[in-house]
Amino acid sequence: MNNFFNLKMIVLDLFSPINMIKRHKESKFHYWGLGVDCCTYHSSRFSVRNHCVTLEGFQEALAENAAIRYSIVKKKWWGKKEVYGEIEMLGNYQEPHCFQITVKDIPNGEHFQIEVFNSFHIACGHFKVEEGYI
Description:
This protein has helices spanning 2-14, 17-26; strands at 30-34, 40-42, 46-48, 52-61, 67-75, 81-90, 99-104, 109-117, 123-131. The strands form two sheets. Strands 2, 3, 5, 6 and 8 form a five-stranded antiparallel sheet that branches. A four-stranded antiparallel sheet has the order 1-9-4-7, with no helix packed on it. The protein is an alpha+beta fold. Helices cover 17% and strands 48% of the residues. The protein is globular and about 35 Å long. A hairpin with a 5-residue loop joins β5 and β6.
C-alpha cells in the first residue's frame, strides 16, 4: 500500500501543471493530448527557411485504427487557416520507435504552426519540428 502511495505521488508530481510547463519549456518537443471534447492542437509558431519541414515524434491512440493528421498551417484572420501540407499517421509510435514526416514545397516565412487533429478519438503524443531533412 505504501509503495502504491509513493508511485501515485510521483505520477501526480510528474504530471502536475508546474512540472509539465517546466518540461515543455526545457524541451524542443510539443506535447499534445486530445480527446472527444478537444480534437485539435496547435503548436507554437515557427519559421520555414529551406522550403521543407520534418516532424519527428511519438503518438499513441486508444483506438487502433484512429488516424492522426498532422498539418502545416498558417492561421489567418477570424480563425481561417491556409494548409501547406498534411499527412495522416495510423497506429502507435512509442519510444524508441518514432515517426518522421517531411513536408516539402512550403514557402519560406514565419508564423507557421503544426495542427494535430485526431478525429474525436482519445490520443496523446509529442513531436519536434526540424527545418529541412533529418
